[in-house]
Amino acid sequence: MKKTILLFAIFISVFSCKEDTTKTEITSVSKEDVQVFLDEYSTTFTKLYYDSALAEWDANTKIVAGDTTNAYKVQKANEAFAKFTGSTDVIEKTRKFLESKDDLDIVQVRQLNTILYSAANNPETVSDLVKERIAAENAQNEALFGYDFKVNGTSVTTGDIDKVLRESNNEAERLTNWEASKNVGVGLKDGLENLRKLRNETVGALGYDDYFSYQVSSYGMSRQEMRDEMNKMVKEVWPLYRELHTWARHELAKKFNADVPEYLPAHWLPNRWGQDWSSLVNVEGLDIDGVLADKDPEWIVKEGENFYKSIGFDALPASFYEKSSMYPLPADAPYKKNNHASAWHMNLENDLRCLMSVEPNADYYETIHHELGHIYYYQAYTNPNVPPLLREGANRGYHEAIGSLLGFAAMQKPFLEGKGLVDADVKIDETQNLLKEALSNIVFLPFSAGVMTEFENALYAENLPKDQFNKKWWELAKKYQGMVPPTDRGEEFCDAASKTHINNDAAQYYDYAVSYILLFQFHDHISKNILKQDPHATNYFGSKDVGTFLRGVLETGANNDWRELLKQSVGSEMSAKPMLEYFNPLMDYLKEQNKGRTHTLPETL
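Structure (tokenized):
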């Protein structure tokens, strides 16, 4: 999965004004008073937001072992954010203004709520705690992104490991690489425990029960409501997932000439966390890797931009190409960079960047369309109708949904035909293609809505003891994914921490689950009501009507009620129905394949 990674992803807001006005007691409130406050706040906010973004960018794109310069700059920039964001005076003023919210414009109320939400991450009343948390987060990121992965004593990249897990038929080689991918967690375990404490105590100062509850509150939901929503999603896709799990156990047993296991050994799967099994299926006629192998990586990026331009969006600014870090570092580079694909809205204006390591293959072809979805979302809501404080997705899941939607659309056969990447005369096995899509999209939900969400709930809300981190992780993986470790994984390990988001995008992974549900709702609407095409075989390229629809979703940013925006856009509330409808034709095939086989997952969770 790819996610927009700004390590200060929540708006860490700032405010300063003259001392003689900041301490004045507010006895009455007018729209004019509030607007003056918001304008002053936003001016300082955008400046310091950019300062922090620049420091974070450097820290992610040039990691030098033993060099503490970037860490120092990040520390100072984020401390500046924290100092102003959590100002007691700002909190008191904002609360006072919100007491008169019925007399204010809704846009003003939304901004005030954003300020108060942001302040909870950095309250002045626990400023020493905030400084300690910032330092701990920086240290955790350096340990994570600067880690030297080694296989048999040789340094490798995560991309090297991923390639082995996708392609190798040698079980011993797979096991060695899988174990190497998890070793990073060993040195992150103590840091994760410390971050749990600091994050919980920080937001607790403004009345939140725990950090998980704090993050969930941005959806207008309680912790339990979000967990209920996630469990509902998993239960809805469970019958299909159960069939996929049974099919995969048998297919992989044949591949490795082994007995059919009761649960899936983690190193058998083509993804480090078992969240995507799509490479288990090769759809003949859709050999995109082969077609792209001789392409230049920049060609991949330009193809993504051309797609967005074809549906009516503007060209990317020249600065995007000048300032982004798009390609793998040379093998002899004296530093490392974060290889996790991400999109950055540096200054909430026009400094837009991507951090990637693009290579000419199908994964990156889809990924560039995904990440540019974030970039064009940024561009769309950077307009006078959306104040800087509301320049984010309608909810965090919306951002991922748009990126994933365009990545999904770019991989459908008619689209690929139109781009000359697939021969129009080639006949593909539609069932196998649908199976491949299910092994990505359906398989992902038990991991995101189940394992990740429940682990972070246990970590933050239930104060999971450190000596149970690994036990809990694998209990959840077995329950929701039907996956088990290849060997005993004791508490000397912390396999959860090998997942980037556990460390620096904490307590938000349900965003992805939400995004997959929204993806299929948007795709269903576009294919049936705009393109008038089969949802399984669409071509968005060149459709200005698709662009108009998407712009209508994107251009208001967070200046809306996300539930109402969804109803207005697709005519319904959040629902897995379009996803289940899309994959419904696959059930008969899987049941036929699994006839006579034992299902080891329960019929219901």
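The chain has 24 helices and six strands. The two ends are 25 Å apart (CA to CA).
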